[in-house]
Design brief:
The chain is of the alpha+beta class and 321 residues long. The chain has 2 domains: 10-140, Jelly Rolls; 200-319, Jelly Rolls (Sandwich). Helices cover 21% and strands 25% of the residues. The protein contains 6 helices and 16 strands. It has a 5-stranded antiparallel sheet with strand order 1-2-7-4-5, with helices on both faces. Strand 4 and strand 5 (87-91) form a beta hairpin. Helix 1 (10-23) packs across helix 3 (153-164) and helix 3 crosses helix 4. The longest helix has 14 residues, at 10-23. The radius of gyration is 19 Å and the shape is globular. This is Lytic murein transglycosylase.
Length: 321
């Protein structure tokens, strides 16, 4: 009999869901590379972005597994997540690590969520990014199969949607990391709406800007924001990404970042939604939502001050026209 999913076991069930789906097409210890940006058809996990190329793997660490991110001059990270959905290791270019069984909190397999920057976004940039993808190293000492735990898919989907309704309430900087660093409530909610998010030292996500009813119904709208304090010289980036009500990519022109968008004369950025012909325009579906992404913060405190200013100044999505 399938195991019913509720809030008490959702994080493990959701991780099992992604592990199982991946392994249907890709053997354990092998990396699946996306050679282009995520699309409606190619997305793998919830709330992917258009800032990097994704690569994924399920790796057996029961006898140890060596991971390496080769030296490079672009943004790249190998994120390691265990079966409890804790994000406990993060390798930047030039870094390596051997994952041992004592480093995981459940089971003997981990998920690699790998992000690879494309800069510039042209043929040469993609060629360089693909070469770096092919250079990632995964050397596991064993290849034991991952055995799915048998969770009920219907109750899993129902619990996911229940938690997604709470996504805009989450302080995501309390939601991603290890058992010692996350708070249970935000961790649970974000395990549905932001699976495989990075801890606050690496990235900060802001899902709290909610489209008003008119914008959600596809009336033209816009938001203007300043650049957040990030380590841009190290490949840090800021982006706006839109999603459907289920938090998956729903259109083809769903995201822009500070490199692909045009800045205003004062250095701010105005992002338009469902406003054809306007600069920095994105198309959405009814009931859409959005996330501000801020990768490589200068400091956590500096980004918190930036977000506090957004809230003090009531920066929000407003109708235009």
């Amino acid at each position: 009999m399938a195991i019913k999913v509720d809030r008490s076991n959702f994080t493990v069930a959701e991780t099992d869901h992604y592990f199982r789906n991946h392994l249907q097409e890709h053997p354990v210890n092998t990396i699946r590379h996306s050679r282009g940006f995520s699309t409606v058809e190619s997305q793998v996990v919830i709330r992917e972005n258009k800032d990097c190329l994704y690569s994924h793997a399920v790796v057996d660490v029961s006898e140890g597994a060596y991971l390496a991110n080769p030296a490079w001059d672009r943004y790249s990270i190998i994120q390691v997540i265990d079966e409890n959905q804790y994000s406990f290791a993060h390798l930047y270019p030039g870094e390596s690590l051997t994952i041992t069984p004592d480093m995981v909190t459940r089971g003997h397999h981990v998920w690699l969520n790998i992000r690879t920057e494309v800069r510039p976004e042209n043929g040469a940039g993609f060629y360089d990014a693909h070469r770096h993808q092919d250079a990632y190293v995964v050397r596991a000492s064993s290849a034991k199969p991952y055995v799915s735990k048998g969770f009920d898919p219907e109750s899993l989907a129902a619990t996911r949607m229940e938690l997604l309704l709470l996504s805009s309430t989450v302080d995501t900087w309390e939601a991603f990391g290890t058992a010692e660093t996350v708070k249970p409530g935000p961790f649970l909610i974000a395990s549905a709406g932001g699976w495989a998010g990075l801890p606050k030292e690496h990235a900060i996500y802001y899902p709290k800007i909610v489209p008003p009813a008119t914008a959600a119904a596809l009336e033209p709208s816009a938001i203007t924001v300043k650049l957040p304090p990030l380590r841009y010289d190290e490949g840090g980036f800021f982006s706006v990404t839109t999603y459907g009500p289920d938090a998956f990519i729903a259109t083809e022109d769903y995201a822009l970042n500070h490199r692909t968008a045009s800045a205003n004369d004062d250095g701010t950025y105005t992002f338009h939604f469902n406003a054809p012909g306007m600069p920095n325009n994105m198309s959405t579906v009814t009931g859409w939502n959005m996330v501000l992404r801020m990768y490589l913060p200068e400091t956590f405190e500096a980004v918190m001050e930036y977000l506090d200013e957004l809230e003090r100044n009531n920066i929000s999505i407003k109708p235009i026209g």
